[in-house]
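Sequence and fold:
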Amino acid sequence: MLSQRRLRLLVIAVVAFLFMSFYYSVRHRSSASNTNITSNANTIQGEASKIQNQKFYRSTLDAMKSKEANHAKTQEKIQNAMHAPGNSPGTGAGAGAGSDAEAQKPAIPKANEDTEEIPIAGRTKMTVPKKQDTNVNAKEAQVASEQSEEEKEREIKEKKEAEAKSELNDILKRAPVIVFSKSYCPHSKRAKNILLGHYAIKPEPFVVELDLHPLGPFLQALLGQKTGRRTVPNVLVSGKSIGGGDDIAALDQSDELASTLRSLGGKWIVEVEHLEVEKGL
């Protein structure tokens, strides 16, 4: 019988043999698998390359055919242009080619007052909108605003002048004798004192205080245009001015005021009586 030591060595040798056999078997299988994978990959790459070569070949053929077709069309256009009526062989092709070139040119916007041309890269020019000057725009807005204000003022003035004309016509109908006065004016006070205190006039003179009337300045300007007298007092008899404070005082002192009133007032003045009692005042 074998001793225990030899038996152990035998067992170890058997185990080692089995392990080595298993190891080489697995390695052989892995190598074969890698070989198959590599072969399959090469096959796939080859097929893909063939497909790509076929596509490139087809696209190349298509491009060549398209180029030949375009060339044939161009030649046909040139021939048609050369044989067209009124075109000579020397100029027909040039005209046709020129028209094609003009048709293919990109549209370039034309410069106008709102655009300008600027250089790009030192050579090419491009049309762009002009930069607006903010100062100019502000000035234009200010001028427009001032013009608008002036127009409003002119409209208001024209309206007031029209109202003053209508008001003056109404005032002249109130009485034959009209005294245009101002409440603070001493000359106006003197004229009113003579007409209303020294005389009994029927109908009684109508007094208009221009400084208290809403249309006073416009009435005074209108009186200046109609009578030539722009100051107060301004005494009108039947629409005609007989003067101011000094003129009324002079007529009173010369005893001509009553006759002047009767002459200009006509039938509209019913009575003019000189009050002797009040003469000394």
